[in-house]
Amino acid sequence: MISRIKSIVASVELRRLDKRRIDLAMAWAQRHPLATATYNLGNYLFLGMIKAGLVTMQLLGNIKRQLTHSDDTSEDGAAAAVETYPVRPIPAQPRVLLLAEDSIPQCFEYRVRQKLEMFHSLGWKAEWLPWSDVEGVRRAMHFFDVILLYRVPGFDAVLSILEYANSLNKLLIYDLDDLVFDRRQLEKKFSGNRGQLSHKVYRELLTGADLYRKAMALIPYCIVSTEPLREQVEKIDNVSGFVLPNGISALLNSGSSLIFADKDPGVVTIFYGSGTKTHDADFLLISPVLLELLSAHPEAKLVIAGPVRIDPGFEKLADQVSTIDLLEYRAYLEVLAYADINIAPLEPGLF
After folding, report:
1. Could you tell me the strand order of the sheet in which 300-305 lies?
2. Are strands 300-305 and 171-176 parallel, antiparallel or unpaired?
3. Rounded Cα–Cα distance for residues 102 and 151 (Å)
4. Burial bucket for residue 237 (CB in 10 Å: 0-12, 13-18, 19+)
5. 3-class DSSP assignment, residue 101
6. Residue 202: phi, psi to the nearest 5?
7. Which of 7, 15, 181, 295 ranks highest by number of CB atoms within 10 Å?
8. pLDDT in the model for residue 14
9. How far apart are alpha carbons 199 and 181 in whole angstroms?
10. 195 falls in which pLDDT band (50, 70, 90)?
11. Could you tell me whether strands 96-100 and 126-130 are parallel, antiparallel, or unpaired per DSSP bridges?
């Protein structure tokens, strides 16, 4: 996994143009009035290293837009920035800033916390911020070499961040672990049978797909969790995909060693966990087998965690079936560790 991250960074063709001093000047300039900042930054660049007048004008123009909080940033502007600014050289131990969606605990664990642990184990500086903290992100990105965006939707504020990051010549990499960016596939999966999804949530899911895709289309590199997902990502023009599977974090590893003194050796516990309301059809696949198994083996118990609709047939086996709400991640691992068998059925298809 570590070698994959290194190969992703190394695979980018980089132009030899070090603008770290420009970064520092930009960070300083954001805290001063426009006239003073532009004047001083111009002097700083002139006295320091600047020879390419065109690059200077482009950088000053971007600073002016940031200081005046211009709202004219658009998808076209962000796309133009990708073409305008080359990526700077990446040091042997790059500094990585993760911008993340943190509303789904298990996804945050797999795609954000695990990466932080991995980067730290390499001796790299790595931090994360919620993508919604737009001003915090703007300030922080000056001090990082690589910006990694996990499940970040392409709202206007985000497109502005992407344009700004490109003006600073930062290496941008997108990251995701689900086919949330393909409206057509989402419609195919949920339009006929939405399960627990309300019409409002369904529409938001489709809108989200368009927003994810808008952001992804502006970032040339994308890390995904599986090979089929990589194939789908590369259908987006000018996007190269790399597979970095979900791994095992220190927290997950610690949960595997839990021992329960009160566990009945005569009971076999089967566990199923659903992290969202989109897995009704998945659980339905295995429900007939579970009903048959529980009926034939009264010593077997089924524990279901999270939001999932259960076949009415399980009511007659109520003594063997327990349901619990979605848990905080550490508590979820404890329940999982208590089980003897963990099942994870999935419908055939891309999801």
Report:
1. 321-324, 300-305, 268-273, 341-343
2. unpaired
3. 9
4. exposed
5. coil
6. -60, -45
7. 181
8. 39
9. 19
10. low
11. parallel
Residue 183 one-letter amino acid: R
- Token pair for residue 193? 């049978």
- How many residues does this entry show for the chain? 351
- Cβ-contact 31, 135 below 8 angstroms: no
Q: How far is CA 71 from CA 115, 159, 165, 213, in A?
A: 33, 11, 16, 22
Q: Distance (Å, rounded) from C-alpha 85 to C-alpha 216?
A: 18
Q: From residue 204, how far is each of 100, 244, 312 by CA, in Å?
A: 19, 28, 30
Q: How many CB atoms lie within 10 A of CB 10?
A: 10
Query: Are the CB atoms for 174 and 91 separated by under 8 Å?
Result: no
Summarize pLDDT for 143-168 with one digit per residue, the tens: 999 999 999 999 999 999 999 999 99
* pLDDT given for residue 159 in this prediction: 95
Residue the block writes with tokens 């962000």: 78
Query: What is the pTM assigned to this prediction?
Result: 0.68
Residue 265 pLDDT? 85
Mean pLDDT of the chain, nearest integer: 78
What the block records as the tokens of 145 is 């070499």
Provide the residue type at 154 as one letter: G
Of 69, 65, 67, 71, the C-alpha closest to 30 is 67
Task: Look at residues 205, 238, 199 and name the one whose alpha carbon lies nearest to residue 351.
Answer: 205
Q: Hey, what amino acid is at 16?
A: R
CB–CB of 279/310 below 8 Å? no
Cβ-based neighbours of 273, under 8 Å, separated by 6 or more: 304, 305, 306, 332, 336, 342
Side-chain half-sphere of 128: how many Cα atoms within 13 Å?
Answer: 21
Structure tokens at 114: 């695990």
Contact 335, 341 (CB under 8 A): no
Angle 199-216/156-167 helices, nearest 10 degrees? 10
How many angstroms separate the CA atoms of 147 and 12, rounded? 14
Tokens linked to 326: 């979605």
